[in-house]
UniProtKB/TrEMBL annotation, chain A:
Organism, scientific name: Salipiger aestuarii
Lineage, broadest ranks: Bacteria, Pseudomonadati, Pseudomonadota, Alphaproteobacteria, Rhodobacterales
Signal peptide extent: 1-21
Ranges that cross the membrane: none
Domain named Solute-binding protein family: residues: 69-417
Any single biological process term in GO: peptide transport
Subcellular location: Periplasm
One Pfam family here: SBP_bac_5
Gene Ontology CC annotations of this record: ATP-binding cassette (ABC) transporter complex; outer membrane-bounded periplasmic space
Key words, A-Z: Signal
Gene3D superfamilies, per the entry: Dipeptide-binding Protein, Domain 3 (3.10.105.10), Periplasmic binding protein-like II (3.40.190.10)
Family to which the UniProt record says this protein belongs: Belongs to the bacterial solute-binding protein 5 family.
Superkingdom per UniProt: Bacteria
Protein name: Peptide/nickel transport system substrate-binding protein
UniProtKB/TrEMBL annotation, chain B:
TM annotation in the entry: 103-126, 138-167, 187-206, 246-272, 292-314
Record keyword Membrane present: yes
Record flagged with keyword Membrane: yes
Database matches in InterPro entries: BPD_transp_1_N (IPR045621), MetI-like (IPR000515), MetI-like_sf (IPR035906)
Listed name of the protein: Peptide/nickel transport system permease protein
Length: 515, 325
């Protein structure tokens, strides 16, 4: 009985604490790196822009860390049984930051007019849309031409940001003066951007969710040097280091400080997946045995532990383990140099040198390329390390001027959104580094990718993707290296910062500071 | 030739040089691999042909090279540095926005290095061979040989992280809302570490240069004469030796002054100082052609301007130069 009482008391305390303790007020300083080129999320889509503008703009839905949809601007939604009609009930009383009402007409304008023109990633999904209508001011209806399995995942803020029709209709979107002072519906309003220093957002007092946001203001701080960013966190200049802000070897030093917390959550929607493109078109990489030999030659666990300081997970194939429809029922490539040598002997590899192009995103990637060179030379593959800056890397990869090139890509929660684009033959196009750059061409598998995208039942889709993953892993079109993990480092008194699948991007909405 | 006539002639030549620099930079930059449209599209993490073509069209990159060059150069001739499509603002605005921070930093460093460099050089020369001289020379060598990047990080570590005396980052306390004198004081505190770091290297150079030059001049006949007529050591040093020994320092100072705009990339990066050096570096990484060209051109103009200023200073310091020219 005594025991029972104690338990009851503890449960009551646990339930009561979060409610009582959420305090309003305060300011959060978050590092943004590099400085975004702009904040108009319908036009600018790079990571830093999503980080900052994710507080200003909103999508119809949000996604939790298991990628389940949650209410955003839409308070409820319904998908018809045939998978063709998506009906969204919008929140009442939502206002744009300039005081105008947000209505279903804005949804129609955003998804029907603005974004098809400006948003390459969404354009691919919008190709399935037949019509977007607004039967009443609080209802938006998307009708599809054919079922598109991942459609429920395209309503995230950066994927389909809601754009104010009253500002942009009939204007030249890219050159609209208002791009400099973005107007959204989000929990924070744009206040000031001192280029090279900081971006200041202030609380949206009229936010439509009662009690939110808790914070008064958010400063996004531009600190260009990675070592300086680490020191800025140490000295208390900034409170939050979003994933990837500091070099990996600085992370243990920072997380060991008193009152510092870190989490690997908040990247599930993106699931950054790193691999090396192997140029399937020419040289030894054209031989599947060579590509398999590369997989066996590499000690990917070791690279993860040494180069990435233990962060991340060695992938089994093209789909990240946190993305929907993942399976690990595939050939597993363990570190097995003997097997690699046998494969190389089989194909009669003559020692033709291959070039590796690291991703020019800092020291970690450079070291990673060196680790790969070491592993490959152990089995007798001659490797040279190529180099390029970001623009040069883009040029070389998009013009297919490489042998092996590091890259990583976001998966956006669904293989049909973020995975298949790198493997189907219709995406072999020079001029972009975000498609089938390796030149993998497997018509049989292409059919399966397309079929899996348009199935409606999750069970069917799972079965289809299981099959695809099993087959493609044997072909090794690219060398899958790592499911990247970018821990978010923050002061422990910052509560509820990472609660969704996009983490800090919409984190300040719920975050509060414990005194 | 009067000074004014010389300046006029030099300015005319300078304008031609600048135009040539604009053309050369434009050609070099376009010859480098990389395409701003692909970079911008690439950052989005997804791109298709349509997007790249739209961007290239917006940036004017779909036009023949000759047309692009002509448009740029004729713009420059009318003092129009073009538009940064990446940042969505005229280049001149971007530069103007960053200019005060950079000038504050580089001018402070310039003054610090010049004043202390010359003073220490004179002091060392006056005590040549003594322990003070050895100490100063050794310090100068240390400052001269220390990589700027490392010195900057150490300065932050010691004075900001360990001692907590001075802020290690930025231009002012973000969000503090200081005005007037408080704001000036706040900026000054932020200025100390970057300006010292940036100034140390040149201070060492000036000191060594001044010391060597002083020693050389001090053996000249007119110095012996001055001493013979009974002038005090201090007067001889100031009016006879220093004035003759300062010319090579002026030359070097002219060179440093030319770098006032673009020469502080590293310092600005480590100290998160919102200046032009960073603008240039970041624009280069993104192949934001117009912005890089704009910064290059303004920097080139500064170099040319300070060359002219240096020549004038020569005349003031040493009237014989005017007579010869």
């Amino acid at each position: 009985m005594k025991h029972l009482k104690a338990t009851t008391f503890l449960i009551a305390a646990a339930l009561a604490t979060p409610l009582a303790a959420q305090q309003d007020g305060g300011r959060l300083d978050i590092v943004v790196q590099p400085e975004p080129p702009g904040l108009m999320l319908g036009l600018v889509q790079n990571g830093p822009a999503q980080l900052v503008a994710g507080d200003i703009y909103e999508g119809l839905l949000r996604y939790d860390t298991d990628l389940n949809p949650m209410p955003g601007l839409a308070e409820s939604w319904e998908v018809s049984d045939d998978g063709l009609t998506y009906t969204f009930k919008l929140h009442e009383g939502v206002k744009w930051h300039d005081g105008e009402d947000f209505t279903a007409d804005d949804v129609v304008f955003s998804a029907g007019t603005f974004l098809p023109e400006t948003h390459a990633r969404l354009r691919a999904s919008l190709a399935y849309v037949d019509s977007i209508t607004a039967p009443d001011p609080l209802t938006a209806v998307f009708k599809l031409k054919e079922p598109f399995g991942p459609f429920i995942s395209v309503f995230e803020a950066a994927t389909m940001p809601m754009i104010p029709q009253h500002i942009y209709e009939g204007t030249d979107f890219a050159n609209n003066e208002m791009n400099a002072t973005p107007i959204g519906t989000g929990p924070f309003k744009f206040d000031e951007w001192v280029k090279g220093s900081y971006i200041h957002l202030v609380k949206n007092e009229d936010y439509y969710v009662d009690g939110l946001p808790h914070l008064d203001e958010v400063y996004y701080r531009v600190i260009p040097d990675a070592a300086s960013r680490a020191v800025a966190f140490e000295t208390g200049e900034v409170d939050v280091l979003p994933g990837g802000s500091v070099e990996n070897w600085d992370i243990p030093r920072l997380t060991e400080m008193d009152g510092v917390c870190s989490t690997g959550k908040g990247w599930e929607f993106f699931a950054p997946h790193a691999w090396m493109w192997l140029n399937n078109r020419e040289g030894p990489m054209a031989d599947v045995r060579f590509r398999q030999a590369i997989m066996y030659a590499m000690d990917r666990e070791f690279m993860r532990d040494v180069v990435w300081n233990g962060f991340g997970k060695v992938p089994t194939g093209p789909v990240s383990s946190v993305t929907n429809f993942y399976t690990d029922d595939v050939t597993i490539y363990d570190h097995d140099p003997d097997k690699a040598r046998t494969l190389l002997d089989d194909m009669g590899y003559d020692g033709e040198p291959v070039r590796i192009l690291p991703l020019p995103y800092g020291e970690t990637w450079q070291r990673w390329a060196e680790a790969v060179r070491q592993n490959l030379s152990e089995v007798g593959i001659n490797v040279e390390i190529d180099s390029a800056d970001v623009a040069g890397w883009n040029e070389k990869t998009s013009q297919w001027d490489y042998d092996m090139a590091f890259t990583y890509l976001y998966q956006y929660g669904d293989p049909a959104l973020g995975v298949s684009r790198n493997y189907t033959a219709d995406r072999i196009e020079k001029g972009s580094p975000w498609n089938n750059v390796e030149g993998y061409n497997n018509p049989e598998l292409d059919k399966k990718w397309f079929a899996a995208a348009t199935m409606t039942s999750p069970e069917e889709r799972q079965a289809a993707y299981d099959e695809i993953q099993k087959e493609i892993v044997d072909d090794v079109p690219v060398a899958w290296m790592l499911e990247l993990e970018y821990p978010t480092i923050y002061r422990c008194n910052v509560q509820d910062l990472v609660t969704t699948g996009i983490g800090v991007n919409d984190g300040p909405r719920n975050a509060w500071i414990e005194e | 030739m009067s000074v004014l006539a010389i300046i006029a002639a030099r300015l005319f030549k300078a304008a031609l040089t600048l135009l040539a620099i604009a053309v050369l930079n434009f050609c070099l930059l376009h010859a480098a691999p990389g395409d701003p449209a692909v970079v911008l599209a690439g950052e989005a993490g997804a791109a298709d042909e349509q997007m790249i073509e739209q961007l290239r069209e917006r940036f004017g990159l779909d036009q023949p090279f000759g047309v692009q060059l002509w448009k740029y150069v004729s713009g420059v001739a009318q003092l129009d540095l073009g538009y940064s499509f990446r940042q969505g603002a005229p280049v001149i605005d971007l530069i103007a926005e960053r200019l005060p921070a950079t000038l504050l930093l580089t001018l402070t460093a310039f003054v610090i290095s010049l004043v202390f460099g010359i003073a220490l050089g004179v002091a060392a020369a006056a005590r040549v061979g003594k322990p003070q001289d050895s100490l100063l020379t050794a310090l100068a060598l240390l400052f001269y040989a220390t990589p700027l990047y490392w010195a900057a990080l150490m300065a932050v570590l010691v004075f900001s992280v360990w001692l907590g005396w001075l802020p290690g980052f930025g231009y002012e306390t973000v969000g503090a809302g200081y005005t007037g004198f408080d704001r000036a004081l706040d900026i000054a505190r932020h200025l100390v570490l970057p300006a010292l770091t940036l100034g140390l290297f040149f201070m060492a150079v000036y000191m060594r240069m001044t010391r060597a030059s002083m020693l050389e001049v001090s053996t000249a006949d007119f110095v012996k004469t001055a001493r013979a007529k009974g002038l005090s050591g201090a007067v001889i040093r100031r009016r006879h030796i220093l004035r003759n020994a300062i010319l090579p320092v002026v030359t070097l100072a002219g060179l440093q002054a030319g770098q006032l705009i673009g020469g502080a990339v590293l310092t600005e990066t480590v100290f998160a100082w919102p200046g032009i050096g960073r603008l240039m570096f970041e624009s280069l990484a993104a192949r934001d052609y117009n912005t890089i060209l704009g910064v290059f051109l303004v920097s080139a103009a500064m170099v040319i301007l300070f060359n002219i200023v240096t020549d004038i200073v020569y005349r003031l310091v040493d009237p014989r130069i005017g007579a010869r020219a």
